[in-house]
Design goal:
This protein is of the alpha+beta class. The chain contains six helices and twelve strands.
Length: 282
């Protein structure tokens, strides 16, 4: 099929591929793009070395970096024994022609909300684990997720980068001096975060209301009649279903998505474990 036809009739161009159960980039309908993750020091721009944990994830051309910065703060009055996790997704103009400079647009806000929901629903970290002294001192984890190159499926890449970065975080031990009431930070003694669950997102684009393709590119998202993102945890449990409008899904189709998501969870978990094993000091 000619490039000209793709430009003039992109949807028809796609349909001809989908009829043959494949996509223009050679993938099968249920196939993810090549996925890589790098964790820790030396990831991304130099400034990220100031982070307490970081990760860079690539899904095909979509490239996302996550830096986690930990700060100390007083717990909220109504949650005296809990710390805070504050996620933020940025889609700067440099990552795609579709985004403008300035305050976060709709898609960035929706992605930040999605990540906040994943953190809440999956219990990836128990907020109680971030408390140092009840009512006095707790950790705040600022999780900044920045897209460096946008080619669709920002949610899967962001959730993956967040999980990988959190698994890389080392926090210094902090105690409160009984006499002075001041906190004392021991930078020599660092501990990893307790990651209680490993949520993984799997996104699908819906074509012509019925056909599901996994890990859509930006072009596929633009042509789709809807999208759906399934988040599962280690036990194959459903943490959330994110469906912003678009074509409705039958129960059977949704079940297909969940089955694929459970398989994807295993793939991602294996990838993270392998990378973490390779960076552990021998």
């Amino acid at each position: 099929l000619s490039v000209g036809f793709r430009t003039v009739e992109p949807l028809e161009y796609y349909r001809r591929f989908l009829k043959e159960n494949c996509r223009p980039d050679g993938r099968e309908l249920g196939e993810f793009r090549a996925t890589t993750v790098n964790i820790g020091k030396g990831v991304g721009p130099g400034s990220i070395t100031t982070a307490d944990g970081s990760a860079l994830v690539k899904l095909g051309n979509t490239t996302v970096i996550c830096g986690v910065k930990a700060e100390l703060a007083a717990p909220a009055a109504d949650a005296a024994n809990k710390g805070y996790i504050v996620p933020n997704v940025e889609l700067p103009s440099l990552c795609s022609m579709r985004f403008r400079s300035g305050p976060p647009g709709e898609e960035a806000q929706a992605a930040s909300q999605f990540i906040a929901d994943v953190i809440e629903n999956s219990q990836i970290i128990a907020k109680e684990d971030l408390c140092i002294a009840s009512g006095k001192l707790a950790w705040v984890l600022y999780c900044d997720i920045i897209c460096l190159d946008y080619d669709g499926n920002i949610l899967d890449a962001s959730a993956f980068a967040l999980l990988a970065a959190l698994k890389n975080v080392q926090l210094p031990s902090v105690t409160i001096n009984e006499e002075t009431g001041l906190s004392e930070v021991n930078l020599k003694q660092k501990n990893p975060l307790i990651i209680r669950k490993h949520p993984v997102a799997t996104s699908f684009a819906i074509f012509d209301d019925t056909l599901l393709i996994v890990d859509p590119t930006a072009e596929e998202e633009d042509l789709a009649t809807g999208t759906v993102t399934i988040v599962t945890d280690d036990e194959g449990r459903l943490c959330s279903v994110h469906k912003p409008g678009g074509s409705p899904l039958t129960g059977a189709k949704l079940q297909d998505c969940i089955t694929r998501a459970v398989t994807r969870h295993k793939e991602v978990k294996k990838l993270i474990d392998k990378v973490i094993k390779s960076i552990k000091p021998k």
